[in-house]
Design a protein that fits this description.
- The chain is 49% helix and 8% strand.
- The protein is α/β, with parallel strands linked by helices.
- It has helices at 4-7, 20-23, 28-34, 51-60, 76-84, 107-118, 132-135, 138-141, 154-170, 179-188, 193-205, 216-221, 233-248, 252-265, 268-283, 290-304, 309-321, 328-342, 400-414; strands at residues 41-44, 65-70, 95-100, 122-128, 145-148, 175-177, 212-214.
- The radius of gyration is 30 Å and the shape is extended.
């Protein structure tokens, strides 16, 4: 039997499942395909979301020869061979070149495409699972339209699975299935259409009886749950971002969800690094002892290791999510760093310079007032360079700790 993913690959736009955000009737990409006006484009999204399938469909809508290359194994010579053969393409109005995983082409290989794109000999359709703005040459991006593919919904996947089963049944394969089983396949496929097909195909081919039965219990026995455990790439960094934003937003349940997905990837170093940053950036001076608590917790995490470390990580994440929040420290350093790039910040005041050497006085260094010699260990004097006189980098925020600091110093400085 041909693989289901190949057998059921749609050949026209009406049979394509999912990606309605870019392909519903009236959307620009839909109109371009229907009008046979295919443009240079980049498809960006996770595996199994229809990028290759749509490229094939687009080729069917235009009178052009379709070529497919995989950037993991292709070379510049492969592209040159295609262009050199263009004069021999009878009854074709050019070439559509689909390059899968374009990010695997190096800068020189990507630049070699520009000549053929610009003179119209090639209409490029490229796909990538990584953010194109990070991995694809800017000159190519400027000449292409970028379309973002999303993981398929469970309902979209079920539609595809039902089509597959109906095709098999029409060809004489006896199959019984339940809606619950298809729903389960859709759930564990995590938006990956290809994976869903593969699970269904395994469920059918692994049964030797005349009537194959697709049940939830049987799918579970196959052990094909596909929670992505990638510990690099866009998806991983999206999860780190979602973890931080959930903690910042004081939503412990969401934070635990993203933590679980990150733990699945097994990259403890990245997780504890991000948690450390969160403690300073988002909890900050609203609860400054969080830094020491998190530091102690992280030592335990690294000492214990997975899988048990997941419990310690869970406690740390819930702890941070439920603490009061302040980003005053983050704002302060960002503002100061920005000034270093954009304004004349001046020299260190003479009374603050190092005076522990012979001849300092001759250079005009001196005049520093030692605060501990004064009442409340405070004496008013200038600390910023004169060019930054009056500049405020740290602004207290509305939380118990910072308000207590503000009240304390207002009282001291009035005396």
């Amino acid at each position: 039997m041909r693989p289901l993913a190949d057998l059921m690959r749609p050949s026209d736009l009406e049979d394509f499942v999912g990606q309605q955000q870019i392909l519903s009737e009236g959307k620009p990409l839909y109109n371009l395909i229907k009008s046979k006006n295919i443009c240079n484009c980049i498809f960006y999204g996770p595996p199994g979301t229809g990028k290759t399938t749509l490229a094939n469909i687009m080729a069917n809508y235009v009178d052009k020869k379709f070529y497919k290359l995989n950037a993991t194994i292709a070379s510049v010579k492969d592209i040159q061979d295609i262009t050199n053969n263009m004069d021999n393409l009878l009854n074709y109005n050019g070439v559509v070149l689909y390059i899968d995983e374009l990010q695997h082409f190096n800068k020189k290989q990507q630049q070699s495409l520009l000549e053929f794109i610009e003179d119209g000999r090639i209409t490029l359709i490229a796909s990538t699972t990584e953010n194109p703005y990070f991995v694809i040459h800017k000159a190519i991006i400027s000449r292409c339209n970028i379309f973002s593919f999303k993981p398929l919904s469970t309902s979209d996947i079920i539609v595809g699975l039902e089509k597959s089963l109906k095709r098999l049944i029409s060809e004489g394969v006896e199959v019984k299935y339940s809606e619950d089983a298809l729903n389960y396949i859709g759930e564990i496929s995590q938006g990956d259409y290809r994976k869903a097909y593969n699970i269904l195909e395994l469920a059918i081919n692994s049964q030797v009886k005349n009537v194959r039965e697709i049940t939830t219990q049987y799918i579970e026995s196959l052990g094909q749950s596909t929670m992505r455990a990638d510990s690099s790439g866009d998806e991983f960094y999206n999860l780190l971002s979602a973890l931080q934003k959930s903690i910042r937003g004081s939503d412990p349940s969401a934070a635990i969800h993203y933590l679980a997905r990150l733990i699945k990837g097994g990259n403890l170093t990245a997780i504890v690094r991000r948690i450390s940053v969160i403690a300073a950036e988002d909890i900050g001076l609203a609860f400054p002892s969080a830094l020491s608590v998190v530091n102690s917790g992280i030592e335990l995490v690294l000492k214990v290791g997975l899988p048990e470390a997941r419990i310690i990580l869970s406690e740390i994440v819930i702890y941070l999510a439920t603490l009061p929040k302040s980003n005053s420290a983050c704002l302060a350093i960002e503002s100061a760093m920005n000034d270093l790039e954009n304004i004349n910040f001046g020299d260190v005041p003479m009374h603050l310079k190092d005076a522990h050497y012979s001849g300092a006085t001759n250079l005009g260094v001196g005049g520093y007032k030692y605060p501990h010699n004064y009442n409340n260990h405070y004496i008013e004097q200038d600390y910023l360079p004169k060019e930054l006189d009056g500049k405020i980098y740290y602004n207290e925020q509305n939380n118990k700790y910072e308000e207590s600091l503000k009240n304390y110093w207002e009282k001291i400085k009035k005396q």
